Amino acid sequence: EDQVTQSPEALRLQEGESSSLNCSYTVSGLRGLFWYRQDPGKGPEFLFTLYSAGEEKEKERLKATLTKKESFLHITAPKPEDSATYLCAVQVTGRRALTFGSGTRLQVQP
Amino acid sequence: DVKVTQSSRYLVKRTGEKVFLECVQDMDHENMFWYRQDPGLGLRLIYFSYDVKMKEKGDIPEGYSVSREKKERFSLILESASTNQTSMYLCASSFRGPSDEAFFGQGTRLTVV
Description:
The complex is a heterodimer. In chain A, strands 2, 4, 5, 9, 10 and 11 form a 6-stranded mixed β-sheet that branches. In chain A, strands 1-3-8-7-6 form a 5-stranded antiparallel β-sheet, with no helix packed on it. Chain A has strands spanning 3-7, 10-14, 19-26, 30-38, 45-50, 56-59, 62-66, 70-75, 84-92, 98-100, 104-109. In chain A, strand 6 and strand 7 form a beta hairpin. Chain A is built from no helices and 11 strands. By secondary structure, chain A is mainly beta. Chain A has a single domain (3-109), classed as Immunoglobulin-like (Sandwich), CATH 2.60.40. In chain B, a hairpin with a 2-residue loop joins strand 7 and strand 8 (73-78). In chain B, the strands form 2 sheets. In chain B, strands 2, 4, 5, 6, 9, 10 and 11 form a 7-stranded mixed β-sheet that branches. In chain B, strands 1-3-8-7 form a 4-stranded antiparallel β-sheet, with no helix packed on it. The model of chain B has no long low-confidence stretch (mean pLDDT 93). Chain B has one domain: Sandwich (Immunoglobulin-like), CATH 2.60.40.10. The chains are: A mainly beta, B mainly beta. Chain A binds chain B through residues 31-32, 34, 36, 41-46, 49, 87, 89, 91, 96-103, and chain B through 4, 31, 33, 35, 40-45, 48, 50, 58, 90, 92, 94, 96, 98-107, 109.
């Protein structure tokens, strides 16, 4: 069975305090790994897709990396507006839909 | 910009009612999905459709059905609403291709009383 596990469940940072969120996965065949951001009461917003181990992508203060077993979302010098829930999802070979982790709730305090 | 629009942000329905949740996308996407999101459980797939009139069950289809009569519209139907169907419902769409990132609507928070 395909599994996606995110850690920690919740993370509180001070503004400017860099950290990383983890997404570990056990799947039969990875087609792609996705990161989304979700604000309270809203739908998830697409951030990144990673396809192969060693791949990295960046967007502003966010950087996503991928290995054969896990992905990290690195947040450099976060700001309060980065506060949100970050969701990781995988797409498995032969399956159109995504399998999601339960998310990491990030709070950045001024 | 891709736009996925869900017909209602909030709904309150009574137990036993038939409930329709509507979703429309404007990007000519082949795939459309319905997920529900519950605290601690993440997003779970209810149904998806890869073409007009085509559908496949997801991980938790019991108590739900779907309809896709037009490419841009995907409806989720709760045949007889129950309190355990109280949840946030999210519609998504994507192209049929290797870069299958899904774009989500704003969600419908359904409360069944």
